[in-house]
């Protein structure tokens, strides 16, 4: 069985991106796994601190590990947006494959110092774990927003990226390149799309020389995503799109079976809706038109 590092290195060689999808329940996890298996591509499932609290840190780690072993498929687990060393250690000890140690809200030097400490601590627990650091401002919350925040002043510079990587020892960098967490209502209805600073991505990749993650990928223009992958993005996070698909699928199931009270007869509608959303993104990330 390949490690996440192996899969990441191979994706860079193939000039494709790994799809990262957040999960908060069995419906989402089942749908993402089914999508990856059907398309025969690796996937990363992520869980934020809130999602981990809801599911259970060790419970989620055991579940993903059992799915990987039973189905012999490349599905990996990431502790998304972890804001404290204690929470990061908890995920590492549970057996997560990767951790996003996110102190991007702090001043740069403080972010560097504490991220370096986290890398050293987490590698002591598991030398194979991948640690991702984040700099810049991409907003907060994988939700539906009324208005887009002004994130133009929080974009990552190539010089900052290089300094951050060299000073911390992180394995993966998450920069701010026009991406934003969540989606606007207009994006949910397909009226507008997020746009990325492709040139900035290329310059950061050249300066940092590590794999790059694009957070907040939901609602992003398809062609921009293709160009971003070509410019050096290696992992793309999708969360809000799956949450929207989850809700729409659940609503469809309840509408079609208004008198049904058996969960396993209603929830397959949500599974199928999420699977379609995940498959669409995985096809794009892996070079399908």
From TrEMBL:
Domain of life from the UniProt record: Bacteria
Binding-site positions, Zn(2+) 1: 81, 181, 215
This protein's record includes keyword Translocase: no
Organism, scientific name: Bradyrhizobium centrolobii
Lineage: Bacteria, Pseudomonadati, Pseudomonadota, Alphaproteobacteria, Hyphomicrobiales
UniProt keyword Metal-binding, yes or no: yes
GO terms for biological process, alphabetical: reductive pentose-phosphate cycle
Example GO molecular function: zinc ion binding
Cofactor: how and how many bound: Binds 2 Zn(2+) ions per subunit. One is catalytic and the other provides a structural contribution.
Active site: 80 (proton donor)
Name of this protein: Tagatose-bisphosphate aldolase
Xref: Pfam families: F_bP_aldolase
Cofactor(s) it depends on: Zn(2+)
Recorded metabolic or biological pathway in which this protein acts: Carbohydrate biosynthesis; Calvin cycle
Residues binding Zn(2+) 2: 102, 134
Record keywords, A-Z: Calvin cycle, Metal-binding, Zinc
